[in-house]
C-alpha cells in the first residue's frame, strides 16, 4: 500500500528545524509588545467575497491562487491567502475601528496555489502588523522603525535593504494607468504573457514584471510621479524626512507598486539578495480606503506583513540562532533497574528547583552505557546517575557530556553549583 504524503507545497517542520522558528517567533512577540501592539487571532476560512472585494478580482491571487470551495450550505468560502483583509473584517465586525486608534498584530498560516519554490510554499506562515485610525506619516515611520529594529534583533540587519515608493490615490493610479496602457499597447506582442493579460485588467502590475524584455520596454514608459496628488506627495515627503531623521537608509523604487489593489500612498518593501535572486521579506504600506470598501466607515490604515519561511531560510544561512535554543535537553537522568520512581521524582524536583531547566528522564530500560549514548545524542549537557539513595537524600554521579568537568559525586542538595554551569 502506497504511503500517504503531505500535499505538495505544504511542508512539515521537523524537530531539528523548529528551534529556528521558535527563535524567530519569540523575537517577533517581543518586538510588537515593546511597541504596544496587541494580538488578534482569526479563522483560517473566510467568505470568498472578502478577498474579491479587498484584494481585487483581477489580481493573480483571486484569479489563480486562492483555495476556494462551496460548503454544504452552498456558501463560497476560501482559505485565507493573506491577513490584512481578515484583520479589517474582524476588527470592523467587533467594533474596534470607528473613531478609535488600534495597533494590532497576528501570525498564522496562509494559503495560495502557486508553484512551490525555495522559501515560497502553498501553505506559508505570515506575521502581520496593522495600525488603524492614524492619518499622518508618523505611524508609517513607526512601522518601518519597528521592522528595522527586528532585523537588528535577528542579526540580519546587514542582509536587507529598504525600498520606498508613493503610489498615490486610486484616482492618481487610474489616470496613470490610462497613460501606461496607451504607451504599452504598441508593444503588446513583445510583453511577457502575464503582462499582456494585465494590460487590460491591472496595468500597474506590469511594472512589477521580472521579465527582462518587459523591463526594457518600461524604461521609457510614463512615470507615476507625474500623476500624483499634492496631498500624497506631501505625506510621502514627510515620511522620508522622518526616516532620514531616524537614520534609516532607503532607496526610492518607482517600480514598486505592491500586488494588492487596496494599497495607496506610501508603500515599502524590505528586500534581500541573501536567498539568491532578489526577494521581498517584508512588505507594507497605507490602505486608507479598505475599511470603507468592506462596509465600514472611512478609516485610515497602514501595516506590513512578513513571510516567515523566507526569514527562517535567512536565519539558517546566517547561523545566528544561539546553540542553547537548538538544544532540547539540559539534563538527562539515567534510570537503572528498580530506580524508575526515584528517577522520575528527582526529575520533577529539578524542574521545580530551577525554572526553565530541561530535564529528560530515560524510559524503556537498558544498560547505563547505552543510556549515556542516548543522552549524548539528545544534546544534553549533563547526565545524572543515581548512585545510592540514603535515608535523607540521593547521592548522584554527575557526568558532563561536553567534558567541561570531570565526573563528580554529589548529594542532591549540593547540585545547584553544578546546574549553574548550564
List how many beta strands DSSP finds.
16
Q: Which class best fits the helix and strand makeup?
A: alpha+beta
Strand fraction:
15-25%
Oligomer: single chain
Low-confidence stretches: none
Assign a percent range to the helix content.
25-40%
Order of strands, widest sheet: 1-5-6-11-10-9-7-8
The rounded Rg comes to 27 Å
Distance from first to last alpha carbon: 48 Å
What profile does the largest beta sheet have? 8 strands, mixed
Mean pLDDT metric: 91
Fold blueprint:
Elements: H1 18-34, E1 38-39, E2 45-47, H2 48-54, H3 60-65, E3 68-70, E4 76-79, H4 84-93, E5 102-111, E6 123-132, H5 137-154, E7 161-166, H6 170-184, H7 193-198, H8 212-218, H9 230-245, E8 251-252, E9 264-272, E10 279-286, H10 290-293, E11 301-307, H11 308-318, H12 323-326, E12 331-334, H13 340-353, E13 359-361, H14 368-378, E14 382-389, E15 394-400, E16 408-411, H15 416-419
Parallel strand pairs: 1-5, 7-8, 12-13, 12-14
Antiparallel strand pairs: 2-4, 3-4, 5-6, 6-11, 7-9, 9-10, 10-11, 14-15, 15-16
Helix pairs in contact: 1-5, 5-9
